[in-house]
């Protein structure tokens, strides 16, 4: 299976809607996504990503064998953190556990470090999401600690974990 990240295309909206209309996926993401997630929601998101500042937002479709199966993005932070960026991602449930997201994370980190002045990329998965933590570890991220009682998801206070990858380590 050939895994690649590529710029979004408006025609990807249908695949995006299918992926994000899965509660299992949304349960591991931050709040704010509509459910069900419609093709129009996908078009709106893709349009926003395509028009975003290219030096602050690095957003890509994740593909396997040329089919869009997920999303990955690195988002520059502000002020004293302007050379730090947050990583976020998700993949269609039928592709979980196949090493696809690890490969996509490696690709986007290489791209961001090579094409920008970002020196640190971090991710904050929910502590109970061991699969996402494993993706980061396999991609070379270092575990920095647990952010205790750091979020409220579905009315439940949960911990998150902090992982980072430095440019000099990549």
From TrEMBL:
GO molecular-function terms, A-Z: acyltransferase activity, transferring groups other than amino-acyl groups
Protein's name in the database: N-acetyltransferase
Keyword entries, A-Z: Transferase
- Enumerate the spans annotated as N-acetyltransferase domain: 3-167
């Amino acid at each position: 299976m050939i895994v690649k990240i590529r710029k979004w295309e408006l025609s990807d909206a249908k695949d995006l809607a299918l992926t994000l209309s899965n509660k299992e996926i949304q349960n591991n993401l931050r709040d704010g996504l509509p459910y069900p997630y419609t093709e129009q929601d996908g078009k709106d998101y893709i349009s926003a990503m395509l028009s975003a500042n290219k030096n602050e937002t690095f957003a890509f479709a994740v593909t396997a064998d040329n089919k869009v199966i997920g999303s990955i993005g690195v988002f520059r932070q502000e002020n004293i953190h302007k050379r730090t960026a947050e990583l976020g991602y998700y993949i269609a449930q039928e592709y979980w556990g196949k090493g696809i997201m690890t490969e996509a994370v490696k690709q986007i980190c290489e791209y961001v470090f090579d094409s920008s002045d970002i020196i640190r990329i971090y991710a904050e998965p929910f502590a109970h999401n061991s699969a996402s933590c494993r993706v980061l570890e396999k991609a070379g991220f270092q575990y920095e600690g647990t952010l205790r009682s750091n979020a409220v998801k579905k009315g439940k206070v949960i911990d998150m974990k902090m992982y980072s990858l430095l440019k000099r380590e990549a």
